[in-house]
Design goal:
The protein is mainly α. It folds into 2 domains: about 50 residues, no CATH class; about 40 residues, no CATH class. The longest helix has 14 residues. It is elongated and about 65 Å long. The termini are far apart. The relative contact order is 0.09.
């Protein structure tokens, strides 16, 4: 079941039409449903609002977390060396890996 159909089923279970749904109803639906803070549900809510099916409402933004694991410069250099020299890897994989490693290095490390 898609997130949009889950929301509609939830509204139906409360005898609410989408036109009668308000921000408080959306907030109640989202309580304890972390998976529903998705782009597809956000798009569905925007669709309902844009066509004036529901009053203006918004979904809370999902938090983005920073990476928790970082490779040090030595690890990155070893991986880069592998990307540049490993002939068993395709050229596309080698180039993509090398670019990702180079772009991901902080500017202070590139200048050092």
């Amino acid at each position: 079941m898609t997130t949009a159909s889950e929301l509609l089923a939830w509204l139906d279970g409360r005898h609410l039409a989408p036109a009668a749904m308000g921000q408080a109803d959306l907030d109640r639906f989202l309580e304890g449903r972390a998976k529903f803070h998705s782009d597809s549900l956000r798009a569905f809510v925007r669709f309902l609002v844009a066509r004036t099916i529901t009053p203006k409402m918004s979904m809370p933004q999902t938090g983005r977390s920073d990476p928790q694991v970082f490779n040090d410069v030595g690890d990155r250099a070893a991986l880069l060396r592998t990307c540049l020299t490993e002939t068993a890897m395709s050229h596309a994989a080698r180039i993509t890996g090398a670019l990702a490693l180079l772009v991901g290095i902080p500017s202070t490390a590139r200048c050092a």
